[in-house]
Amino acid sequence: MVCKILLVGTGLTSAVTGSLLRKMCQKHVNLVFWDKAKEVGGRMRTSMSPSNSNSIADLGAQYITSTQENFTNHSDLYESLILGKLLEPLCSKIEGMKDLPVGTKQFVAPHGMNSLVKHFLYNAADEIHFGYYVVSISKQGKRWLVETECGVNDMFDVVILTLPVPQLLDIGGFIQEIIHKNSEMKHSLKSVTFSSRYALCLFFDSNFKFNPGWDSKYICDNEIFRFVSFDNKKRNRPDLPSAVVFHTSIQYGAINSDRELNDVKNELVCHVKEMFPDWPEPEHIECQRWQYSQVMTPYLGQPGCLTIEQHPLLVAGGDSFMSSHIDGCISSAFILADTVGLAIKKSEQN
Predict the structure, then answer these.
(1) Closest CA to 76 of 32, 19, 123
(2) How confident is the model at residue 350 (pLDDT cuts 50, 70, 90)?
(3) 16, HSE (Cβ side, Cα atoms, 13 Å)
(4) Lowest CB count within 10 Å: 5, 263, 321, 331, which one?
(5) CATH code, 281
(6) Domain count, the chain
(7) Residue 80 in contact with residue 119, Cβ under 8 Å?
(8) What angle do CA 120, 114, 81 make, to 5 degrees?
(9) Do residues 31 and 137 both lie within one domain?
(10) Spatial separation of the C-alpha atoms in residues 108 and 273, rounded to whole Å
(11) What integer pLDDT is reported at residue 137 of this predicted model?
(12) Count of CB atoms within 10 A of residue 312's CB?
């Protein structure tokens, strides 16, 4: 019997979870991925200039920092990415970076951070659908009926939620009854908090050469921006067209989280011109609002996986239940896969 599993979200946690389940269960699972966005990656989003396909930039996660312990624990995944030339050592200097523990490894994704997600996702998925915003999850006998805002609905044996907790709490249907009946779960879910940020990307003409004296840096004395990076140089590709990415501070993101995106975009561009008046006009500008950027307060105890309902199985995972770094997502994926795999094994024995 094939177990039909829905994974909500196509970020790193979901992709790795699917990859692990595929290895564990082989053809005994049908893995379906739904995402409200129009592309793969979640907060590991990579954008492309509409005028030059060689000009790309990471708008979310910028690089990978893995402690010696985490790198050892997740060595199989890291090795597959390194052998596939999807990860390279971080070579450019990032000014203002905090001192790191001995043995820490740092990497960049030469083809963009979303290439890491695609590596795991496309080898695991039976189906991937974009523009599917989940609005309701209800129990129908021994299965889950999942409905989307666009009117699509389907039945699943298992549902895995990897979206940020505030979005999970917005889902209607029977899931709300379960959460409200469990006061401890409800309190812990509502206690999860995220920071908000904006990312601004300026794509420039390939013939213009920048020489600011740095490749990337953290900014401590700016009222708007916290980080800036020449993305092509950060990814060890200095000969590609320049794409400069700015991330706003947590404070700016919080104060301006409800503004019109275009208004914020114009304000950020004006501020860049004040900071760098000699820069030419960019060919293309993109602004991304990260309403849920990084976890500030994770789920109590950081369990990696939360079982919302046992029969049929409904679980949640992701950085909301661990921490907002790559290894946090990977650790959550391992716990999710083990939880679901064990449930499938038990159901096959009954």
Answers:
(1) 19
(2) low
(3) 28
(4) 263
(5) 3.90.660.10
(6) 2
(7) yes
(8) 50
(9) yes
(10) 28
(11) 98
(12) 18
